[in-house]
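hey so u asked for the seq, here:
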Amino acid sequence: MTMTKQELRRLLKEKRAAISAEQKKEYDSAIVKHILASALFCDASMLLLYAPMEGEITLLPLVRAARSMGKPIAFPRCNTADNTMAFYILEPNARLTEGAYHIPEPPADASLCVPDERALCILPGLSFDPNGNRLGYGKGYYDRYLATFPGVTLGALYAQMMLKKIPTDAHDLPARYLVTEHGMMSVSRSESEEPPKLSQKARTSFSDFAKQIARAGVQATKALIRDARTQGKDGIRALHAPPVLVICTFVLLFLSNLIDANLLDRDNEYIGAILLQILIFVIPALLYCKLRGEKFTDRIRMHLIRASQLFFVLCMLILMITGSLLSSILTGGIASLSGNFTLYGTFVARTGTPADIVYSILAYALLPALGEELIFRSILAAEYEKYGVGVAVTVSALMFAMLHFSFTHFLTYLLLGLLLAFAMYATRSFFTPFLLHLCYNIFCLFGQPFLSAFYVNAGSTEIFLFCLVVLFLLFAALTSGEARKIYHVYATKNVDASYTVSVPLKEYPRRILFALFTPAFAVCIVFFLVMTIVNLF
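ran it, structure tokens below
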């Protein structure tokens, strides 16, 4: 006669209670040792753990090991009002406090944990079967949470508590791996799905705990480098391909310098500039998206700007203009504000006749904004954001600054790249940085007379700079306030944020370094240096 889940739970609780304290301590230590000695643990980006109730396996020693490796630790908090559960980060100086069902949980001010595909969630349970099916306590909190969990699940149990088969319902989700006091095992029948293992030396007694932590730290660092270098899809490496795309734009810009004279001689400057924009940016971007697959186009944020976000866009535009003027003055002096608008040092814009104005907007404002934002915001950000939005923003801004081949204006373009990327993430739309870039280019084309008039009427350089600083600070505050409103709407509407991972601030320098640690990016730097030096002469 088949037993119901309720009957199984009662018998399993009695069986678990019969395990002596000495045996339980020995089993728990062995399970902790096996987890620490696995590459499954070493490769994890974060650890989602549970606070043990009476009789459950105690895995809290993993907290110290994970923190020594820089992994965030999260514990669940149950919401009895709607029967949902979420994990929250437990900071090193924080303590678990009693919550729902008398289960210790993170404090009320803990940050929400946003797991990625490398997050490791260790599941409690009365029992598991060899297929990973779990028998919990009947509340269904973990089943509801795991329905949207993108990471790896590991079920922890005592070997004697494993059942041959656990009755399942449609909503039950199996664990991917299991661990007992005897070792790790995969629930998959495929050998390729077996969890990665370290050397036999790593499987020593728990008395070598300190060595295990040190070894795990080395393995985690190697795993992060390996992941940063090789993670990709359909044969395209995620951190090698983006710099290669940038190199293509660099090479094409270099070729445009070589044909510049011929274009000017034929009086085809506008046509040449338009064709070059399509060749340098649009075609490589479209080919790149094609190679990355159909699903990649869903990640480059081709969504319209909402009407409620337009004031944010306006504030950001004025912030970009004042910020770029201040950085230009800082690096090139007040004289840097004079002169005609040029496109990559190749074409000089003319704004005489109405036809010149129309062609200038198309060739020097609209197409550069479209092409550059498509590559440097949409594509690059989509490739790097899996390592954190901060990585995506920083790396894309660096490459955008190098595109213009200028030491003097590098800081200006870096600032613009950071602001444009921030605007895209705030509104979650490609069209926001495109519109900002277009308006900024139009200002650079036609705003010079107004800027000169303002400088003359100010009467002195000090008053002019004072006005710029005041405007910059004012609109920085307004932009921040509008961004806060936008994110508040996202929070109240529970808008999905699974496109990125939660990364501690102190972790960003290391992740940015690894993102840049590729031969292709080194070529970008060399190309930038060579072209910049050549342009000086």
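The CA atoms of residues 47 and 73 lie 5 Å apart. The radius of gyration is 29 Å.
lmk if thats what u needed
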